């Protein structure tokens, strides 16, 4: 390979690595600046009744606290709390004693099945879906559902507050992405920990889809409903615990998101408009081509390091990132710059492992889960 062609390959790979984390955010930020103003949350004069659907499996230790948290959130209208116990009679009984309505499914079908059952059972048009172990920040319910008074909006994404150091910095980065996607019409990033949906816009999540939040956001956009983002509607969620549990969950979610993309592959076509660019920039490139390009760059650097100082420096940087990931996995506190590097490297590894699980056909509709 000639030096010119070799340099072009390196430049192309570097651009590919940067596409999801640098190029897309930069272009999105420019597009958002051309908007005349940021969307303003609608003012509601008469608050309609809402149903808060809480899918729950092995949540006996937290479900009563969750019911109280919803009841005390301050929604100005009538709130019905519906706990969908996913084949878990013990959690159902505790939720009933706490004052929630109960829908007990005969057997465990996974979160998507529980959400389908809960939305179908709800008698209100405005519905909030939230995880049993996630505590609502005060005022979140009204801030979230106010957007549903706009008939063009089918779903509203809330915010999740978790982590610290590099993880928190990365969450803030993704929040900025969601905010600017919403400013340009609709976001594709909806977190299942807290969201709102309009029942008349809802379509059941298909069997075999376990990445419920990504499916909801893409499906709503696909059918012409916008997805809003409300940063002042948030939940606080404790860390899942060990590095091994976090790794299993994140790689499972990543693999599951690829199954969603496979089902919604028509939306990847530029013919679908701006939403296609958001899917490519926010999800596809960052989770597939970017990490693969990073691996290719490491391979090139290994071959060139003996005679190329820049290649050696690149390998050294990756080694430091790997060490930082290991240090965080062992519970070490890192300076914020090192934490951010560790988080980016960790998520690159998650994406690669998620691809492996997807290729292996690992849908993981249900999974092993510790009691909470």
TrEMBL record:
<keyword id="KW-1133">Transmembrane helix</keyword>
<keyword id="KW-0808">Transferase</keyword>
<keyword id="KW-0812">Transmembrane</keyword>
<feature type="transmembrane region" description="Helical">
    <location>
        <begin position="310"/>
        <end position="327"/>
    </location>
</feature>
<keyword id="KW-0472">Membrane</keyword>
<feature type="transmembrane region" description="Helical">
    <location>
        <begin position="339"/>
        <end position="360"/>
    </location>
</feature>
<dbReference type="Pfam" id="PF00535">
    <property type="entry name" value="Glycos_transf_2"/>
</dbReference>
<dbReference type="GO" id="GO:0016757">
    <property type="term" value="F:glycosyltransferase activity"/>
</dbReference>
<dbReference type="InterPro" id="IPR001173">
    <property type="entry name" value="Glyco_trans_2-like"/>
</dbReference>
<dbReference type="InterPro" id="IPR029044">
    <property type="entry name" value="Nucleotide-diphossugar_trans"/>
</dbReference>
<comment type="similarity">
    <text>Belongs to the glycosyltransferase 2 family.</text>
</comment>
<feature type="domain" description="Glycosyltransferase 2-like">
    <location>
        <begin position="51"/>
        <end position="183"/>
    </location>
</feature>
<keyword id="KW-0328">Glycosyltransferase</keyword>
<protein>
    <submittedName>
        <fullName>Cellulose synthase/poly-beta-1,6-N-acetylglucosamine synthase-like glycosyltransferase</fullName>
    </submittedName>
</protein>
